[in-house]
Write a sequence for this structure.
């Protein structure tokens, strides 16, 4: 691979955490996952609707999986964005995306994004679109990993 | 310090990095939204002692560094997480019904059949996830494949890693590991310090 040290394939530090949730009549409902620098993937899903269960799973990933996660992040160019002009978290919900990659550390927060319409009408559609798709791609990756390893339906 | 308009396009300047200081972070919270834009550098309120908060000064960006610490993150991510029984040693970890491998470098126009043809010869594929890029609708670039036996998965890795699939070089490796691939809380001593300590089979 031709990427630099801190690029997609680089050996620099990598950490990623995503949270989405809200507090409502079913309590604090949220989904959160994190990729830790030592390879541990943690996944938590708390939904109080219908059944009162908290799913918490963790598993160690190989460096190859972490590297692919890093590539997805790097290709998205999310590290170039800024959440300054994104909708602020509100009563409806909150999203957090925190990434450490090489020498950069982002910690973005915004409201829940219902659809691309919300993205388009925001003050920073380009940046928010990148966030919107990256989050979906990351969720998709994590759900596959968790469901294959534990044979549960993550959501 | 740059003004609010600059913050959009520019990374924060490196000499802001010495604000990685607990007290400063607590004092200057998000009490005034207007002030926030002029205070680009604060220690993460969210990470609070997590793995990410360690290590050397970094260029930081985002509202997450300026918000109060009431997100309850400590409660959410502490406590017991379920995992499959594992001795924590090196090497691949078995998943609940089989062995999972990761294929990367998968061509964006690959079809499930292409993966079936290439990887089916090592054993019956019990599960195949060929996820799509949500924006483009093309293949994202990786596939996760489940075999029932260790030997099948091992053979697929040995045979296909570095091989070619639809004109692209693919890398194939185990997806899950029995333990961490570097020591917890390992500070970066050198940028190359941890690169070769992983238990991975090949690369």
């Amino acid at each position: 691979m031709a990427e630099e040290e801190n690029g997609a394939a680089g050996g620099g530090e990598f950490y990623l955490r995503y949270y989405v949730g809200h507090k409502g009549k079913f309590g604090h409902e949220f989904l959160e996952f994190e990729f830790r620098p030592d390879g541990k993937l943690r996944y938590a899903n708390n939904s109080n609707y219908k059944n009162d269960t908290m799913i918490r799973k963790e598993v160690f990933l190989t460096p190859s999986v972490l590297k692919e996660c890093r590539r997805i992040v790097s290709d998205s160019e999310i590290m170039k964005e800024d959440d300054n002009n994104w909708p602020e978290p509100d009563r409806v919900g909150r999203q957090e995306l925190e990434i450490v990659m090489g020498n950069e550390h982002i910690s973005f927060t915004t409201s829940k994004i219902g659809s691309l319409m919300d993205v388009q009408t925001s003050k920073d559609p380009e940046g928010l679109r990148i966030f919107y798709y990256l989050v979906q791609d990351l969720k998709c990756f994590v759900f596959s990993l968790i469901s294959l390893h534990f044979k549960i339906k993550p959501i | 310090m740059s003004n609010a308009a600059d913050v959009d396009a520019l990374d924060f300047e490196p000499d802001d990095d010495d604000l990685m200081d607990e007290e400063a972070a607590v004092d200057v919270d998000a009490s005034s939204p207007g002030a926030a834009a002029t205070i680009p550098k604060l220690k993460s309120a969210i990470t609070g002692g997590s793995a990410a908060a360690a290590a050397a000064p970094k260029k930081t960006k985002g509202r997450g560094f300026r918000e109060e610490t009431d997100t309850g993150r400590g409660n959410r991510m502490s406590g017991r997480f379920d995992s499959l029984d594992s001795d924590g040693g090196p090497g691949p970890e078995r998943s609940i019904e089989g062995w999972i491998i990761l294929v990367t470098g998968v061509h964006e126009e690959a079809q499930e059949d292409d993966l079936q043809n290439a990887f089916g010869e090592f054993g019956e594929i019990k599960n195949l996830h060929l996820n799509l890029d949500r924006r483009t609708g093309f293949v994202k670039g990786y596939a996760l494949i489940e075999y029932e036996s260790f030997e099948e998965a091992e053979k697929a890795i040995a045979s296909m890693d570095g091989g070619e699939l639809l004109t692209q070089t693919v890398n194939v490796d185990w997806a899950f590991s029995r333990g961490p691939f570097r020591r917890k809380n390992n500070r970066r001593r050198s940028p190359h310090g941890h690169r070769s300590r992983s238990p991975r089979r090949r690369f």
Notes: Chain B touches chain A through 77 residues (CB under 8 Å). Residues 150-160 of chain B form the longest helix (11 residues). The mean pLDDT of chain B is 73. The radius of gyration of chain B is 22 Å.
